[in-house]
Design a protein that fits this description.
By secondary structure, this protein is an alpha+beta fold. Among the domains are: 56 residues, no CATH class; 78 residues, no CATH class. The chain has 7 helices and 6 strands. The strands form 2 sheets. It has a 4-stranded antiparallel β-sheet with strand order 1-2-3-4. The chain has a two-stranded antiparallel sheet with strand order 5-6. Strand 1 and strand 2 form a beta hairpin.
């Protein structure tokens, strides 16, 4: 019995605390917190237009500088948590993802092709470039450096090495026309397959010629 009597005051204190909380909650409902008018104020890119009808307890209709509209909590506006209609976040993400913004330029395509010819054994032109020891200088492994030295590729031109036995590097490259490329082309050696084809064609011509000789000989009168 003594144990129960010792704990009874603690239970009464807990009950009194719960009652006080309930009373405070009821009073807060009767006397709601005063809403601060944010109409016409700017927060970053957002300008507050009006209090939202259905979300009047926390929502404000805001118009962004980009033209979009968004409902934002007043506390988020005041604390700087919302500064745009999410367009600012998209722009920052795109900026972080884009290094130079020239991925679709003609110069970038030439730069990619140059590296593929020199470093990718699966590239069709690799045997005449990387397979022959032609490489790209260390400076031009970064596109921004290549673009700073060569600039944008003019329409109708392509990347050409002045010395066909030299590497891709400043001083040995230019933008050249098709005619200039052909005039500066390295003479190609005939492959074994081409030699076999040419030998086969010569043999076929020889056989056809011999057949013609035999045919003429058969038609000739015999003594």
């Amino acid at each position: 019995m003594d144990l129960g009597q010792n704990h009874q005051p603690h239970k009464l204190d807990e009950l009194a605390g719960l009652i006080n909380k309930a009373i405070a909650k009821a009073q807060s409902r009767r006397h709601p917190r005063k809403i601060i008018d944010l109409t016409g104020k700017r927060f970053g890119r957002l300008v507050v237009l009006a209090l939202h009808a259905e979300k009047s307890r926390f929502g404000w209709v805001c118009r962004c500088d980009c033209g979009g509209e968004r409902i934002v909590r007043g506390s988020d506006l005041i604390r700087g948590m919302s500064k745009s209609c999410n367009c600012l976040r998209k722009e920052m993400f795109a900026k972080r993802s884009t290094k130079h913004g020239l991925c679709r330029s003609r110069a970038y395509q030439s730069w990619k092709g140059m590296k593929a010819r020199c470093f990718n054994p699966r590239d069709r032109a690799y045997p005449d470039y990387g397979g022959r020891g032609i490489t790209v200088c260390e400076r031009w492994l970064i596109f921004e450096n290549f673009y700073a030295d060569m600039g944008e590729r003019p329409p109708g031109m392509s990347l050409d090495r002045i010395n066909n036995d030299g590497n891709y590097e400043p001083g040995n490259c230019r933008w050249a026309t098709v005619a200039e490329q052909l005039a500066n082309r390295r003479p190609r050696r005939h492959s074994k397959r081409r030699r076999k084809r040419s030998s086969l064609a010569a043999l076929q011509s020889y056989v056809a010629a011999m057949r013609g000789v035999r045919s003429e000989a058969a038609k000739a009168p015999h003594d």
